[in-house]
Design goal:
Butyryl-CoA Dehydrogenase, subunit A, domain 3; two-stranded antiparallel sheet; mainly alpha; globular; 2 strands
Length: 221
């Protein structure tokens, strides 16, 4: 079977994730075994891995499309919180009473809120993915409602990450918009990941239609 590969349609000039090495390349006239391929976007992905044993390959596509980008964005948010904490421990803001940034009650409040917001989103996502995993591991079939909750949890975790990183970005003051700042890097990367279609806000009404007993459309099936 003859295949032509065309990977990474992303632009070279992007605001975030500039160090991921995304680029375009093609391979012509190369024999690629069918077992090493996957359908292109738009083709149903369900059961394509059934030839391999294990729970991972028996999971519905909704258990990894969405959650995988969601895991990236929550990880970046955690790095952003850590970056602000490190910055606050050594920065002395200009034009304010003497003292470190970490001594500012607003900064203390923002760090506490950001941590709680981020962990709430992560906990919801973990609970929903665990429920799907346990269902499949027990030999059961996942329900449409379970899949909807998994996608909603992924999107909500991403939104929680945005809220957390925006708090940190604001508290960083002028350091936040310096290109070399770790906090700025996390902010740019996080918002870039958050633009992916797998975490789009349209998943909220899709999930809502499931709960209301309506057809959610092809995106969830």
């Amino acid at each position: 079977m003859l295949f032509v590969l065309d990977l990474a349609e992303t632009s070279h000039d992007v605001a975030g994730l500039r160090g991921t090495g995304s680029f375009d390349w093609t391979v012509d006239d190369v024999l690629l075994p069918e077992r090493r391929t996957m359908p292109q976007v738009g083709i149903l992905l369900e059961n394509q891995w059934s030839r391999w044993p294990g729970v991972v390959y028996a999971l519905p596509v909704q258990c990894w499309v969405g959650p995988h980008h969601s895991a990236v964005i929550t990880g970046i948010a955690r790095a952003g919180i850590d970056a602000l904490i490190e910055l606050a421990g050594g920065k002395q803001p200009r034009g304010r009473p003497a003292g470190l940034l970490c001594e500012n009650p607003q900064v203390q409040d923002a760090v506490g809120r950001a941590d709680a917001i981020l962990n709430a989103g992560r906990a919801y996502r973990t609970a929903m993915i665990t429920e799907l995993w346990n269902t499949v591991a027990a030999g059961g079939e996942t329900t449409l409602e379970q899949r909807a909750r998994c996608r909603l949890a992924s999107t909500y975790a991403a939104d929680s990450s945005r809220e957390a990183i925006d708090l940190m970005f604001r508290m960083g003051g002028s350091t936040s918009f310096k290109r070399e700042s770790r906090l700025a890097e996390c902010w740019r990367d996080l918002h870039t990941v958050g633009q992916t279609v797998t975490l789009a806000p349209e998943w909220y009404p899709i999930g809502g239609r499931v709960y209301l007993g309506m057809d959610p459309g092809s995106r969830l099936r």
